[in-house]
Amino acid sequence: MLIIITPPYSLPDEGRIVNRLFENGLHLLHLRKPGANRNTLERYIRDIRPCFRERIVLHNHFELAEEYGLRGIHLKYNEAGAFTGRERFGHVSVSCHSFEEIDTLPFEPNYVFLSPIFDSISKPGYLSAFSPEFLKENLQKRQIPVIALGGITGEKVAECRQLGFRGIALLGYAWEEPSETVARFTGILPDEVLSIAGFDQSSGAGVTADIKTFESCRVYGLGTSSAITFQNQNTYLGTKWLTPGEIIQQCDVLFREFNPAYVKIGLIESFNTLEEVVKYLRTTLPKVRIIWDPILKASAGFQFHNGENLGQLQDILQEIYLITPNTDELKILFGNHTDTANLQALARTLHLNILWKGGHNDGALATDRLITPDRVYSFSVARAKHGKHGTGCVLSSAIASYLTLGYPLPDACRLGQHYVARFIRSNDTNLGIHNRVESTAPEVDLYHIPLQYITDYKEGVSIPEQVEAVCKGGCRWVQLRMKEADREEFIRTGQAVKEICRRYGALFLVNDNVDIALELDADGVHLGKEDMNPLEARRILGYSKIIGGTCNTFEDVVARFRQQVDYIGLGPFTYTTTKKRLSPVLGLEGYRRIIDACREEGIYLPVHAIGGIREDDIQPILNTGVTGIALSSLLKNSEDITAKTKEIMRKLNTGGVRGDS
Questions:
Q1: DSSP labels for 285-353?
Q2: Measuring CA to CA, how many Å separate 490 from each of 94, 468, 481, 494, 637?
Q3: How far apart are CA 246 and CA 227, in angstroms?
Q4: Tens of pLDDT along 599-619?
Q5: What is the C-alpha to C-alpha distance for residues 363 and 383, in angstroms, rounded to an integer?
Q6: pLDDT exceeds cutoff 60 at 438
Q7: How far apart are CA 216 and CA 240, in angstroms?
Q8: Under a CB-based contact definition with an 8 Å cutoff, are residues 561 and 603 in contact?
Q9: In whole angstroms, what is the distance from residue 579 CA to residue 572 CA?
Q10: E-assigned strands of 488-533?
Q11: In the chain, N or C terminus with fewer CB closer than 10 Å?
Q12: Roughly what angle, to the nearest 10 degrees, separates helices 641-655 and 463-472?
């Protein structure tokens, strides 16, 4: 885990640098500005793009963490003793200066900073009090993840990993030359994760696919072979197994230089081999967490061990952190009567986590269920038209990657599912492409798409026909709204609308229904004031999707801004027949008042005016400072929808698109 702590003072262009760090894969930023007041910190948070704010940990003014959906908070050791908000914040970390302080914490934090490990760069005279031997001995004894802080440079990162630290935090080295901050961050070798799996000649599955996944997720992939398979993506001919001793010998060499926190095990010859390898890993790396993908049958149809020696399985599972079986594998491992309640009882008994993969089950959505001793989580993605060789390997490896980066297990499973969905959609063949996971918001510039079309029913003109017509006229943003439709009709229409939008290069968003947006793999969702919280919608849809929100007042805008929306639909401008429950109309004066308040408060988001807009209203509305307009009836009810859209686009382009609201 690589963390960057902000400098205690303000730097020119610091917000831009932090956004660049996130774009280049930074997982966590600790926002530490001693003495800064609430307003200063709030302005800093607002400089961070909404999709990155959930990666910020706050060191003071903790209420901002909840208001802006930040990751959590960080405490000094002397604050931890009286702290009573552990359940309130999902993430709490603590600074400590000795192992005695770590051992006397009154609660278990997500991790602790231990400092100074080396002589401090940012605090002259702040010298290390730890010897390497003392650190190595004591780090082995602690279960709480310990992050090294103090005097760490790029050259000392490997030493910290070999000592047994779970991660590093950079401060002085990162910021002493701000022009080099991003380069110094990207120049550090990322944390490692190990795959023990079979070798597949096609690289679609097995250890090579795992390493592709690791490095696409920005961790360093290590590989150990458990078998040589004779296969391609369509045919499986056989297997040459490596002995447990040969597997262990490969690991021994690696562990002289590396100390992975997570190890993924895939194809393995038998439970006896699995037991020997697991016992070796837990002895050699006492704090390692093992993920087992129980491959019992190849996608090409080849059957491996058929659940033999099930009596010894529970002993093995007590040493494993997570297993990732599909339904058939669950039945082989635990019998035909597997259900969530029985599996959770098993999870409690064995202190095990079970990810029940749903990719082979029926339904429009592929739903995975994470069963932990305490809770059951469900994650869904749209079921793809085409299958892929090696998706089970890819999923477990993606989860291992995200866990290595520091994500909690539920988030790692959700992100892993999104990774596999992208992998499946990468092409129409049986072999997928691993594209590097980029930590960026949508590349489209919403400030420069001035017209959004919101669908509505019209007798004689279907919704797909309306969308085709507005796209021909130059509109490049469509929001599918179907208030009276049942789910089946919504999905069927959405598939047609999405295809049209793809042909014209137009954005395709779904109104209100996050689950339908997920199933259709839409570009995003627009949420009304009474719909799902945008923060939860972003967790479900992922950070590459666009999320918009309806607002009627400046207070609504502030709330949506804190909820990390990408744009705002502000209205209604005047009375509209397309809304049954209408908020108070704003008019031109209402828009001016809200846009001026946004400027004063430093809120910068694309704002689209909506609600009862006529053609003559367009230029006056643009003059208030809004970014663009959203139309429905004006286009839908015209005799020639395409011609009217072209006319509106000319007015918008002539009037100029505002980018300062």
A1: STT-EEEE----B-TTS-B---S--GGGHHHHHTT-SEE--BHHHHHHHH-TT--HHHHHHHHHHHT-E
A2: 48, 17, 9, 6, 21
A3: 10
A4: 888 788 899 999 999 999 999
A5: 8
A6: no
A7: 29
A8: yes
A9: 9
A10: 507-511, 524-527
A11: N
A12: 50
Higher-confidence residue of 616 and 433: namely: 616
What is the C-alpha separation between 69 and 58, in angstroms, rounded? 11
Number of Cβ within a 10 Å radius of residue 106: 10
Going by C-beta distance under 8 Å and a sequence separation of 6 or more, which residues neighbour residue 202?
231, 232, 233, 389, 431
Q: Give the CA distances from residue 521 to residues 84, 178, 357, 579, in Å, rounded to whole numbers and listed in that order.
A: 41, 39, 19, 26
Distance, CA of 136 to CA of 50 (rounded, Å)? 39
Reply yes or no on whether the pLDDT at 490 is more than 80: yes
**What distance in Å separates the CA atoms of residue 224 and residue 251, rounded to the nearest whole number?**
7
Q: Under a CB-based contact definition with an 8 Å cutoff, are residues 241 and 226 in contact?
A: yes
Structure tokens at 433: 């492409």
Phi-psi region of 433 (alpha: psi -120 to 50; beta: other; left: phi over 0): beta
* Lookup: tokens for 523: 């570009």
Name the nearest CA neighbour of 242 among 256, 232, 261, 229.
Answer: 229
How would residue 597 be classed by pLDDT, with cut points 50, 70 and 90? very high
Contacts of 505 (CB under 8 A, 6+ apart): 476
C-alpha separations of 5 from 18, 36, 172, 261 in Å: 10, 15, 9, 22
C-alpha distances (whole Å) from 193 to each of 213, 259, 264, 445, 486 are 11, 9, 8, 36, 45
| Strand pairing class (507-511; 524-527) | parallel
Please report which confidence band the pLDDT of residue 656 belongs to, taking 50, 70 and 90 as the band edges.
very low
For 608-611, the CB contacts below 8 A with 24+ separation are 608/452, 608/567, 608/568, 608/569, 608/570, 609/570, 609/571, 609/573, 610/454, 610/550, 610/569, 610/570, 610/571, 610/572, 610/573, 611/571, 611/572, 611/573, 611/574, 611/575, 611/576, 611/579, 611/582, 611/585
What does the DSSP 8-state code read for residue 569?
E
Q: Nearest CA to 352 among 333, 337, 365, 366?
A: 333
Burial class (CB in 10 A: 0-12, 13-18, 19+), 12: exposed
Residue with the two structure tokens 């020119």 = 12
Classify burial at 45, counting beta carbons within 10 Å of its beta carbon; exposed 0-12, middle 13-18, buried 19 or more. Answer: buried
313, 292 contact by CB (below 8 A): no
What is the distance between the alpha carbons of residues 242 and 229, in angstroms, rounded to a whole number?
11
Average pLDDT, rounded, for the chain: 88
Q: ω before 116 within 30° of 0 (cis)?
A: yes
Instruction: Give pLDDT, residue 304.
Output: 52
Residue 516: Cβ within 10 Å count = 22
The pTM of the full predicted model, rounded to 2 decimals, is 0.75
Tokens of 298: 């190849």
At residue 542, φ and ψ (nearest 5 deg) are 95, 165
Cα 505 to Cα 196: distance, rounded to the nearest angstrom: 42
Q: Which residue is associated with the tokens 């910290």?
A: 160
| Mean pLDDT in residue range 273-300 | 86
